[in-house]
Amino acid sequence: MRTIVLFLSLLPSLNVTATADELPTPAQQYHQLRKEYNVVSREIIRSKTVEDRKAVARRFDAFAKKFLDIADKHPDDPIAPSAIRFAVQAIVTTDSRARNIAEFHPGSSVVGSSDGSTQRVVKLVLRDHLMSDKLAPICDRVRFSFRPEFEPLLRAAIKVNPHKDVRGLAQLALAQLQHNQLRLMDLADDRPELSKRFGTIYGIGYIERLQRIGRDQLVKRVETAYEAAVKFDDVTNIPFKMSVAEKARSDLYELRHLSRGRKAPEIQGQDQEGRQFKLTDYRGNVVLLYFWQEHCLPCQAHWPHQRSIIKRLSGEPFALLGVNTPPHTPDALKKIMKKHKLNWRSFADDGSIAKRWNSPATPSFYIIDHEGAIRHKWIGHPGEQTIDAALDKLLEEVEQ
């Protein structure tokens, strides 16, 4: 009887030991979570409705906490920095989905991240990984963010991390993060109703705080950050296959020459009829400059609006000019425009125009006033009402 009692008394400890042995390692937990994350990533492509996209955004939001739990419980495990990196990616993706809904679906509520994951990323990095050579991929993900809460992480890495590649990528990420904030403020200036919607994503008063700083001061802040990044010529910025310095120079050129208030760089080339012309030929007119591709689906979706603008503003001092990329001969461009019944004049770019304009994504829109200054700039379509209102306002200035 004594033997049986002793055996039974040992069972709890035996079970605990067996359970502990069966627990997945931090790396196994991380890789399993990555698999689940990839499944949800593919659902982005399949989501058709706004509600589907909101549901996907909520699922992405949940991943940040799960990745951070791994890093928090196992700070010394080699997998911890990778877990933090994917937490940042989950935050950025959640924000991106929410921002898309805020911009293009005004009748739908906006879902923002609210679990404090951004602050937790900063806390874990400062506590456990600030001096690590594994911090570079985390900084690389932060550059896609619009959240000022990430700035203390980047500034600390720039100041004390002993690895030059980490400092370089952190400096570039700081410049791009601040540049993203400037772009978002410009968009909210065009569409004031977005201020409140962006506040749901990034925190109440987000746009208003940027506006209090002022655009001129924000531009100077971004310039200063890029100028510091230009010093890192020997640090490779892997995603862009160029050095940190090269990417910083490229972005600095865009800020100084292709942003609001700057004089639009000259464009010269052939149109679809093979005739030479220049952008400055249209000085005195309000110009909607439109970078597009034939097989760009977002471009195609808004061709009816482009046609309607030309019809509505017929007789006004206005011109819609296209820049077609990738390179096409005038004859090839003429066939494309005839096939799709596109009725505006377009440059047949040999690649030099896009290069001078920093290879913009398609569609990209610039509104240039009658004196040749860039007054509005949108990467992606900002909405028909936004473009129409901006054009009408500038046409009123011409009449004055």
Q: In words, what does this structure look like?
A:
- The protein is α/β, with parallel strands linked by helices and 400 residues long.
- The protein folds into two domains: 22-257, no CATH class; 268-399, 3-Layer(aba) Sandwich (Glutaredoxin), CATH 3.40.30.
- 60% of the residues lie in helices and 10% in strands.
- It is built from 17 helices and nine strands.
- The strands form three sheets. A five-stranded mixed sheet has the order 7-6-5-8-9.
- Strand 8 and strand 9 (374-379) form a beta hairpin.
- The chain is globular.
Number of strands: 9
Number of domains: 2
SS field, number of helical segments? 17
Proportion of residues in helical segments: 55-70%
Shape: globular
Strand order of the largest sheet: 7-6-5-8-9
The Cα radius of gyration reads: 26 Å
Percent of residues in beta strands: 5-15%
User: What is the terminal-to-terminal distance?
Assistant: 106 Å
Largest sheet: 5 strands, mixed
Kindly name the structural category: alpha/beta
Chain-averaged pLDDT: 91
**Secondary-structure element order, as H and E?**
HHHHHHHHHHHEEHEEEHHEHEHEEH
Low-confidence parts: 1-18
Feature tags:
2 domains; disordered N terminus; Glutaredoxin; 400 residues; 17 helices; two-stranded antiparallel ribbon; alpha/beta; 9 strands; globular; five-stranded mixed beta sheet
Quick structural gist:
By secondary structure, this protein is of the alpha/beta class. Helix content is 60%, strand content 10%.
